[in-house]
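Hi X.,

You mentioned you wanted examples for the new student's onboarding notes, showing what a folding record looks like when two proteins sit in one file. Here is a clean example. The first protein comes first, with its sequence line followed by its structure tokens.
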Amino acid sequence: MPAPSDGALVVDGVSHRFGDRLVLDGVDLVVPSGRVIGLLGPNGAGKTTLMRIVFGVIEPDAGGVWWRGRASTGEDRSRWGYMPQERGLYREMRVHDQLVWIARLHGLDRCAAADRADDLLERLGLADRRGDQVQKLSGGMAQRVQLAAAMVHQPELLVLDEPFSGLDPTAVEFLTAVVLDHVAAGGTLVFSSHQLDLVEGLCESITMIDAGRVVLEGDVATLKRESPDRHLRVDAEVDPAWLVGLPAELESADHRGSRVRLGVDADPVEVLDAIRRRAVIADFAVETPSLSELFLDAIGGAPVGAER
């Protein structure tokens, strides 16, 4: 099989069964360098199984994982970072000691490991808890430590499996800022999550899976722009005759305003200009579908995959 070369990380035709149950069915995933990629889908879709295959925990029944144009190795994976859905911290170990220990396992010397741990704890708002045992932290704080553990060795590839599950908005903000700094510094990031709309503003490209199959993939902005569910909302009552010859149709209108469905090839500015020639517009907005709406459209609104 030729080595895929379209991205830093490439998952090529991966399939896997647990007994008689097909969990992954020919899944492809391309992760370019320096990008934020979302591996999205409902609970039970197969996301965590795929991540375990990427990290060599499970051998796939078919397909393979490639890193920078060749089959990935254990040495490659040692330079990656993984925040698993099932948290794996040593609860009786002190926060700073744990991060230093993990960094040293990845090859950092003691001084560099301590500096890296100090930096991450400061950025994650945990500097004052560095001497605490993990078991004395709240769930949100422990989750921040788990992220630090995945990042302490400055991984080339960072994979976060359900990173925001159970977190309050403040914790989400902390984690988001730190992982985006990682990408800005040249790292590569994969979000694996069922919380589609929570990660919507973070992902540049997505691969959505349901019941072990890819149902939607591509650049987020392009998927939204090409969706048949885009609308233009204006604060004026629109006459359908104003839209003749344009790839748009009036969906609703009254004295409070109008909602116009935009065709795939429609230029919202062109449609807006056609309306503005006939009415005074003080407020308008282009409404694009959320990732959840794109997902439901991709599967035809059918029930999502069963629980693993």
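Then the second protein repeats the pattern, sequence line and then tokens:
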Amino acid sequence: MYDTRLYQEHLNRVSRSFAKSIEMLDDPLRHYVALSYLLCRMIDTIEDEKQLSKEQQKLAFEKLKAALNSPERKSYFLKLIRALPWSESAEKALMMDSPIFIDDFHRLPLPIKNHIRELSFQMMDGMWHFLNQSEKGKIQIRDHNDLNTYCFFVAGVVGECLTKMVANMEERWGKTKGLVAKSHAFGLFLQKVNILKDQWKDEKEGRFFVPNRKEVYQNLLGHARDSYDYICSIPSAQKAYKVFCLSAFLLGLQTIKRLDHQQVEKNVKVPRLKMVQLFMNLEGFANSNHKLTEYIEENFPEILRIQRPIRMDYQGVQAILNA
């Protein structure tokens, strides 16, 4: 058993939208996804904390890896976390409760634990690569291949981990051709939506993720097509997972509808009424791919016109993982 109340408190603090989506899942998948998300948020906090030096960030990643490899190493990670300077935030509270989540991680079934460990290690390796290349805390993405590589490590690996966890329950689905590549695209789609939405804010804080706004948007549409195909492929027996994916996907589509290609500083938040309407339709879309297709055709027809989405080049990913 795990403390659902504690999990929900932290999820509500660090991401209300994901907290709501995760609530749609059934246990044990709800537990697996919530724990994965909170571990990823811990990793993200180490990357984002401006009071940490590169050396402190690297050490924190190393200690967290050790704690996920062996529960006996948890105390060393906690000792470091308590000694490091953290900005007062919901993320700091999450870091202080990290021993609880590390203990829960080590109680997971072995296949699930392996999937989450692989996700966490790859995310830390990728984040450290870009942090180590940064100058004075400023991250500069050079071109679109560079952006795809960054997005793979912060989001593509999440899509792959989710797919592998569900595939433990749906083995035939897990062997579907091209499924892993589409799960990466699903993660890249959601990440690039946020990158375009937050470009002005990120650049004020020294994170330059957008080499060419128009090119990122066009590439985003290809990821949206792969994401649509991915969601349509989810077996009917995993309806709760399909609803979970749809909530993020449709919110992402509504967000890009509000993006301006030129004016970066713009409020693109989806209105509350529109979000309520979307969430009311999730069950119907999950029950019928035909209804989902009709909705996409009516609201985002350009996505369905894409026949062969451009897939990412994994050379940059392999170079980092092999370093």
